[in-house]
Amino acid sequence: MPVHIDMLELCGVKLSRLEEDDEQLSDGARIAIIRDGRAALRRLTGVDFGYDIGQWEECLLHGGEDFGYRHPYGYGQTARKVQETKSDPEHARLVAALIAKDGCG
Pick from 47, 75, 95, 103: most CB atoms within 10 A? Predict the structure, then answer.
């Protein structure tokens, strides 16, 4: 489901297998992925929670709209990655750098 792709990108996960593995991504590349995930979620939902993964998750789970987030095809893996990312200091560092650069949160 596209919403799972968007959330995984917000987590900084690169889904294309055509280029280098996630572990080899530069900070700039990972920041671009996070930025793209947020933009896609904004387009899908019509709201903006910045880079706050927890708020995005709440919106998708309980927002009253059916965005397909609970679809069994991708929900389990996406939910696990979202939980990991919420406490990932590396992701927090990248988001802080992104906010400092773009001036938005």
Answer: 95
- Joined together, the tokens standing for residue 79 give 């939910």
From CA 98, how far away is CA 41, in angstroms rounded? Answer: 17
pTM over 0.90: no
CA distance 22 to 86: 18
Task: Give the count of domains, the chain.
Answer: 1
Which residue range is the domain that position 88 belongs to? 2-102
> pLDDT tens-digit profile of 19-48?
555 567 889 999 999 999 999 999 999 999
What size, in residues, is the chain?
105
- Cα separation, 20 vs 13, in Å, equals 12
